[in-house]
Amino acid sequence: PLGVATVDMALRTLARDCATAGRHLPAVRAVRLTRTHLELYLAEPAVLPPGWTTPAGSGEGTHWRLQPDETPVADARHLADIPAPYPALVTLGHDQDDAHYLVDLEYLGGLGLTGPPERTRAALAAIVVELATSSWADDVRLTVVGEFAGLEDVLASGRIRYLPTLGRAVEQLANRAERDRELLEYLDGLNVQP
């Protein structure tokens, strides 16, 4: 019964509630979606917002649970202006209870896939497709290097850019980082917050 829309709306509701309370969003390592609830696994303890509970025995405030039947999340109309707080969430698999596990690639910083080439390529393709199409990755722009050259043509998501080699990608990222640094220095000189 719970799915993509539940994850998206619950996380946007969390972002709204944290902003309203003047608190930072917690760093999320992983998300677990079951048939009845959504769980967040945090990098460090944080204050629970309304509607979220700590499962029995989980202790330190790094494991949160939301049961949408008991605490409904806001619908899309009320969250239209809330940016997706964890746009780099991707599904890695499911457990014996058929709960789906997602990890935040932004928190992880990297993910290594090993195994037979055809299976790792398929897994990588699934991750790219999910990032290119999921509702909680609405502002994500992907640069795919060396693989899946025609994927953007098939998906038409507007999120995928293909480059044949890594060299060009690194050069473009370095140029963008330099422009961003210069802009931040300029804004800092004006005492303007970005």
Provide the helix percentage.
Answer: 25-40%
Task: Let me know the number of strands.
Answer: 8
What is the distance, rounded to the nearest whole angstrom, between the alpha carbons of the first and last residues?
Answer: 40 Å
The coarse silhouette is globular
Radius of gyration, Cα only, in angstroms? 19 Å
Order of helices and strands: HEEEEEEHHEHEH
Number of helices: 5
Q: Give the strand order, joined by hyphens, for the main sheet.
A: 3-4-2-1-6-5
Structural class: alpha+beta
Strand count, sense and closure of the main sheet?
Answer: 6 strands, antiparallel
Oligomer designation: single chain
Low-confidence stretches: none
Share of β-strand residues:
15-25%
Give an overview in words.
With 194 residues, the protein is of the alpha+beta class. It contains five helices and eight strands. Helix 4 links the parallel strand 7 and strand 8. The longest helix is centred in the C-terminal third of the chain and has 25 residues.
Would you summarize the structure shown here?
36% of the residues lie in helices and 19% in strands. By secondary structure, it is an alpha+beta fold.
What features would you highlight for this structure?
alpha+beta, 6-stranded antiparallel beta sheet, two-stranded parallel ribbon, 5 helices, 194 residues
Q: What's the SSE blueprint?
A:
Layout: H1 4-21, E1 28-33, E2 38-42, E3 52-53, E4 63-66, E5 89-94, E6 100-104, H2 105-108, H3 117-133, E7 142-145, H4 151-155, E8 160-163, H5 166-190
Parallel strand pairs: 7-8
Antiparallel strand pairs: 1-2, 1-6, 2-4, 3-4, 5-6
